[in-house]
Structure formats: structure tokens, C-alpha cells
Design brief:
The protein is of the alpha/beta class and 489 residues long. Helix content is 37%, strand content 12%. One of its GO terms (molecular function) is transaminase activity.
């Protein structure tokens, strides 16, 4: 032990009288040494007031026996406590507690955390799904689709690349160049993007990218536009900066560009498959959106979240291909490859990437290099394309089954299949409200997702039915249960 070793003390008759009967050695923490455990036990007893200031400790031999440790271990612990100021030796006549208990004003509740304004805004923007109940059929969105994951292809890619990540390599703040090459080739061929590898940055997913972009471009006093309704995580990330988020209505052609604000720094859109309504932004409005962004010097944040899972028709090319200097393209593999990887990417003009790479060390880290290299192999080998062909067929068949069953069970309701994505958008006929539908469905053992948490202000009442992760028998059962619940109403 460092410092002056505390002197041994003599035992005296009756000196354990008054010693707390239940004061024994605490449970050890992983890796904790014996003397550190003794010191922590006595320190906690002092601060809790169980060994008041001025208390004389028993002789070292008796105290060591009481605690079940050797005398040397006890002396080492008391030496540490002496160095910290908890005990004071009095020669061979004893050792006494030298600090008072930690006492504060009595209160029932802990004081509030001193949260920053950013944290308060971020927490206010969170949308929590109701949980705790068990449902016979769970249509809530965001459910995993475990039977569609390409586990074999991903495992093989990881095994091939594992040895490479153990060797030293140059750090690239954008991510491994071969992964960026593979992504650029894929996005050019499949999504009509105008992209080179030096325009691609790997991210931890769309939410990570949104947070980084929001921090770079937004602050209190600035304005950002977003579709209404929209993905709640996007609105929360944008609002957390203190910027004003203005909702722009959507209709059958997507974002209503005539309702865009006169000024804005950013606009967040999902033009390929609007979330949650699943409509596609029309060609005329695509042109109008780009013209607006150019006129007000705003960047368009294009979230291409569902493009890989198109079901009934191929989605239109990305907006980024029309205006690569004005559009920042966001994408991830959370729908098509999760849970094997949640890696994502963004495609941006060079000046935007320079800022993001400069600020990234303060807020974010690159996705794992092994995952990135495996992703390059899965994309480049054709394994991802084969996986998507199979997944699209399975998901499309599940949608066809659910749509047919719902139309039979709810003949007076409008049930429209989606071209892309993993959920149905079901507008409610009057006089149904979202709350009433959710309550009636739950009584029949069915869980749905409301649209209201995704909307700011007025919106068309509707519910969402996530179908991609459910087998055909549950889809049929869920539709029948909904028919019984909603036709009766």
C-alpha cells in the first residue's frame, strides 16, 4: 500500500459492544481486491451514519475476525481510509472515525436532472408504442421480419473479411473506399443516383445521419420543413436543435409543394414511398420541390427508406439524380438486412461532406469496419440482389393475402395495396376515430399503430398495419378479427 501504514491497535474487552450487528463485508465487485472491498464496506457505513464521527473501531484482530479477513488485509484497508480522511489513528490506543455522515435535507423525490434544452426537446419528440399487452395478432409497425434475413450470405461475407480487420489500416472518415465504391455502383444502377464513391459517407443508419445533419445545419431561429405526417424520429431529430419544424401536408401526389414555406434551411421528404401514407411524389412535384429548394437555398433531405422493398412496381429514381448539388440522399439497410447490420449511408455534395467529416469525431463514430467490408461483398457479389428478389416475393404475397382478407372482412373500407414498404395505410371512414379503432381492435386481440403520433396538427385519421413479419395464417386471422371488431361498430 502507498502511504504510511496505519499502526496496529490492541484488542480490549467488550469493544464490539455497540458495533452494528448486521455490519458485515459487502458483496465484492468483479475484479475488486480484498482490501478494497473492506475499505468500501467501512466507507459506506461511515457515509450512511452507521459508524458516526468519533466512533472508536475495535482492535484490528477482533475487527478482522468480525469481517472475515486477515489482519493485514484490514490494516491495508484502514491505511487507504486514513489517506482518504475517513479514519484517524491514535497510536496503539485505537482508530476513530474522523468524518460525519453524509446528511442532506429529507426529500421524497430526487431533484430533477439539470438537462440541456437539447435533451428536453429530444425527449419531448419521442414517440413510444404502447406496450405490455399480449395480442393474438400484432400489426404494429417496426416488427422484425426474421424469416427474410440473408444469414448465410452475411455470415460467409463476415468470415471472408474477418482476417482483414485485424491488420492495421488507414483511417478513412467516410468509411472503407471499397464499400463506398460498391454503394455508388448499386445506387447508380438501381436508384438512378448521380454518385461517385467520394460523395458517399457510411453512417450508423438514417437516424444517425439525420442527427448529424441537423446539428450541422439547424439552430434556434432557423426553420426546417417536413412532410406531415412523417417519420417521428426525423421530426424529433430536427426539432431537438431548437429550429422551428413546419409541417407540409401530403395528398395523393405526395408533398404539397405549393404549401412549402417561403424560407427554410432544410426540408425532409420521403418521395419514393411517403411515410406513412405510402404514396409516391409525382413527377411535377419533384420538379417543383427542386425549384423551390434552389430558390430559397435549402437542402432536400431525401430518405429513400423503402426503395429496396418495392412490391407492385419499381419506384421512381431518387431525387438526388435530378439535383445532386441540392439533395442529400439518406439510406440504410435496417429494413432489408436487419438485424445482421444496421449500417446506413448518405450521399452529399463535397462541401457538405467536408463539414460532416470535420464534425463527426465530436458526435459519432464510423460503423464497424468488418460490417462495412462484408456489406461491400454482399452488394458486389450479387447476394444482396438475390436476397431482395426472394424477400420482395415473400412480402408481396403477404400483402396480397392481407389486402384480400381485409377487403372481404371490411367491404365498406378502402384498402389499397402499397407499391413499396412493409405496412398498409388504412384511412378510417367516418365516424371512426383512431382511438376507437385501436380500442375495438384490441378487444379482439389485434394491435395496430395510429397515425396521430406521426402528425403535427390536422391529419386524415388512419391506422397502420405492419404485415411483412407475419405468416399467412396470422394475417388471415388478424383480418377476420378486425372485421369482427370494426363491422360491429
Amino acid at each position: 500500500m502507498a502511504g504510511t501504514r496505519i499502526p496496529l491497535t490492541r484488542d480490549a474487552p467488550g469493544e464490539l459492544d455497540g458495533w452494528p450487528d448486521d455490519l458485515s463485508l459487502a458483496a465484492a465487485h468483479p475484479g475488486e481486491t480484498r482490501h478494497a472491498l473492506v475499505a468500501r464496506t467501512l466507507r459506506d457505513a461511515v457515509t450512511a451514519g452507521r459508524l458516526p464521527e468519533g466512533t472508536r473501531l475495535p482492535g484490528h484482530r477482533r475487527l478482522a475476525q468480525r469481517l472475515g479477513v486477515s489482519r493485514n488485509t484490514l490494516v491495508d484497508a484502514l491505511t487507504q481510509l486514513h489517506a482518504e480522511g475517513y479514519v484517524r489513528p491514535r497510536g496503539r490506543s485505537g482508530t476513530v472515525i474522523s468524518v460525519p455522515a453524509l446528511r442532506g435535507p429529507a426529500r421524497v423525490d430526487a431533484p430533477p436532472l439539470p438537462l440541456s434544452a437539447w435533451a428536453v426537446r429530444a425527449l419531448q419528440g419521442q414517440v413510444q408504442e404502447a406496450g405490455g399487452d399480449t395480442f393474438a395478432v400484432d400489426f404494429r409497425v417496426g416488427q422484425p421480419v426474421p424469416d427474410l434475413y440473408p444469414e448465410a450470405a452475411w455470415t460467409q461475407a463476415l468470415a471472408r473479411r474477418a482476417a482483414q480487420v485485424t491488420h492495421a489500416h488507414a483511417h478513412d472518415p467516410l468509411g472503407p473506399v471499397e464499400t463506398r465504391r460498391a454503394l455508388a455502383a448499386y445506387l447508380s444502377a438501381e436508384r438512378g443516383a448521380r454518385v461517385t464513391p467520394d460523395m458517399v459517407m457510411l453512417t450508423g443508419g438514417t437516424q444517425s445521419a439525420l442527427d448529424a445533419l441537423a446539428r450541422v445545419f439547424l439552430e434556434p431561429g432557423r426553420l426546417v420543413a417536413a412532410e406531415n405526417p412523417t417519420y417521428a424520429g426525423a421530426r424529433a431529430a430536427l426539432a431537438a436543435t431548437g429550429a422551428e419544424v413546419t409541417g407540409v401536408p401530403v395528398d395523393a401526389e405526395g408533398l404539397r409543394t405549393d404549401d412549402l414555406p417561403a424560407r427554410a434551411t432544410l426540408v425532409y421528404v420521403t418521395p419514393g414511398c411517403q411515410y406513412p401514407t405510402a404514396v409516391s411524389l409525382s413527377a411535377a412535384r419533384r420538379q417543383a420541390l427542386i425549384a423551390w429548394a434552389t430558390g430559397v437555398n435549402a437542402f432536400i433531405l431525401e430518405d429513400d427508406y423503402a426503395a429496396d422493398l418495392h412490391l407492385t412496381s419499381r419506384p421512381p429514381p431518387v431525387l438526388q439524380g435530378l439535383a445532386p448539388d441540392r439533395v442529400i440522399l439518406l439510406g440504410s439497410f435496417s429494413k432489408s438486412l436487419a438485424p445482421v447490420t444496421r449500417s446506413g449511408f448518405l450521399v452529399a455534395p463535397p462541401d457538405v461532406l467536408r463539414v460532416l467529416t470535420g464534425t463527426r469525431p465530436l458526435t459519432d463514430r464510423l460503423p464497424g469496419r468488418l460490417d462495412a467490408l462484408a456489406l461491400a461483398d454482399v452488394l458486389g457479389s450479387g447476394a444482396y440482389a438475390r436476397h431482395l428478389r426472394r424477400a420482395r416475393g415473400v412480402v408481396a404475397h403477404r400483402q396480397e393475402t392481407l389486402v384480400a382478407e381485409l377487403r372481404a372482412a371490411l367491404p365498406d373500407w378502402t384498402v389499397t395495396p402499397v407499391a413499396s414498404g412493409l405496412h398498409l395505410y388504412l384511412p378510417l371512414p367516418a365516424p371512426w376515430t383512431e382511438e376507437a379503432v385501436l380500442t375495438s381492435a384490441a378487444a379482439q386481440g389485434v394491435a395496430l399503430s395510429p397515425v396521430s403520433p406521426l402528425a403535427a396538427g390536422g391529419h386524415v385519421p388512419a391506422v397502420l398495419l405492419g404485415f411483412a413479419g407475419l405468416p399467412l395464417d396470422l394475417l388471415r386471422d388478424g383480418a377476420r378479427r378486425l372485421g369482427a371488431a370494426l363491422q360491429a361498430g
